[in-house]
Amino acid sequence: MAFVELFVVALVPVLKTLIITAVGLFLALGRINLLGSTARHHLNNLVFYIFTPALVCSSLAETVTSSNIVSLWFMPVNILLTFIIGSALGWILVRITKTPIELHGLVISCCAAGNLGNLLLIIIPAVCEEKNSPFGDSITCSTNGKAYASLSMAIGAVYIWTYIYNIIRASGTQHNTSTVNIEGSKEVPELLSESCIPPKDSLQNDMDHEAQLAVPLIEYQTTYDDQGHVMRKIKQHIKIWTQRINFKMLFAPSTIATIVGILIGVSSLLRKLMIGNEAPLHVIDSSASMLGEATIPAMTLIIGANLLKGLKKSGVGMWVVIGIQVIRYVALPLSGICVVKAARHFGLVGSDSLYQFVLLLQYALPSAMTIGTITQLFEVGECECSVIMLWNYALASVALTLWTTYYMWILS
């Protein structure tokens, strides 16, 4: 297929995303105010607790079976690699640009976590429906593509609400403890109440621990004479990480929906009861699918509304913004080509070109919008996050289209 034809196929879904995003931005304007902060908060809750779990559960239940689930094992590994490579490049970026320490978690997160949810759910079906699509029959392509995108969103949510959530939390906590130490008897930040402030010595120890948490690779000194002292230090660091990580976020609604959807899909009894027009409990699956259909437009409208902040704020360095764009749209996609080609060479991903296309696309996506929600939660880097996201999604219209075209070209 000609490169120009593939470019048109790739451009259509990106344009659809941009149009809905622009509508969300328009609805958030002060004169309209249909998607103000309160409306976004409630809509975000609906997406997080209702729409997304319904979409993930129904999609996985309908498409994942006991026979094909084994072939999808590489996707969690591939997404993990995107996080690892992005984190390493982000850590290098904060060192080169000398980013303020309270923004380390934000910058590393924007480099590591891509939008593995609604963008894939828009792009994959749209590509499948185009008449010049290189992935064969549109119905089969859309069905399988929806399953791949839903699984990607579910796995991405698990990684985001474990790793990204806690790295931003660590940076925010470190920033707040540093503020308390500098200001002394001045007003305590909102995240710390006066009754929770430990003694000075204890506070200093906590600050030391938080400073070590902010560094991706903790390097231990090798000059200890007493081996028992080394073991005590290791146990101490493990205890600190255990205290800082919020394990409740492992069981986010989308994670639970993923488990339920896979169980229904792989269980022949549950599948016969719920999946298919002749199933006795088909109405449950149909209702979940109907709710899930609201996920894509709702999430995309929220993206547009959140980007409005980026037009009003400019509190982040230019080189940091440029560095994040280079990592997300140059370094990571090139790394993805190497990873997927190696996986295909060793027979880890099979011969399904659509599956390989989704794996490649996971490296070329803009930063996850969930990062903005997490920064709002801990009140650290909110304005900076808005600026980063604004440029990230503005450039996505060009970068994502070009990479999508190139990926289809090398797979067709």
Automatic annotation (TrEMBL):
- Subcellular localization: Endoplasmic reticulum membrane
| Name this polypeptide is given | Protein PIN-LIKES 3-like
Q: What is its main location?
A: endoplasmic reticulum
| Topological type in the membrane | Multi-pass membrane protein
Pfam families documented for this protein: Mem_trans (PF03547)
Is Ion transport among the key words of this record?
no
This chain's source organism reads: Capsicum annuum
Q: Which domain of life is it from?
A: Eukaryota
